[in-house]
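User: Fold this; C-alpha cells only.

Assistant: Input:
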Amino acid sequence: PRCICPVQENALQRVLQLPVVSSTCETLQRKYSSTKESHPLMASVCEVYERGVQGAGALAMWGMEPVVRRLEPQCESAVAVANNLACRGLDHLEEKIPALQYPVDK
C-alpha cells in the first residue's frame, strides 16, 4: 500500500478512478440519458432539475467566496490533512476489499 498520499494525489480523484466506482457512474449516466431520451416528460423535468442544481451551486459558490478567501490559509492545511487521512483509508480499503478494483459487472 501507498500509506501516505503525495501532495498531488487527491483522495476524491482516487475514489472516482476505482473501477467499481467509475463503472457505476458510467452505468448511471447511461441510464439517466436513456431515460431522458425515452420519456419526453421526464426529460423536461430533468432539465428543470439540472438548471436548478446549477443555479443553486453557483449561488452557493458566490456566497461562500468571501469566507473561503479569508480562511484559505487555514483551509489548505486542514484539507491536506483530511486528504492524507482519506488516502490512507483508501489504501486500507483497497488492500482489504479487492473487489473495488473490478467493474460492477464483474
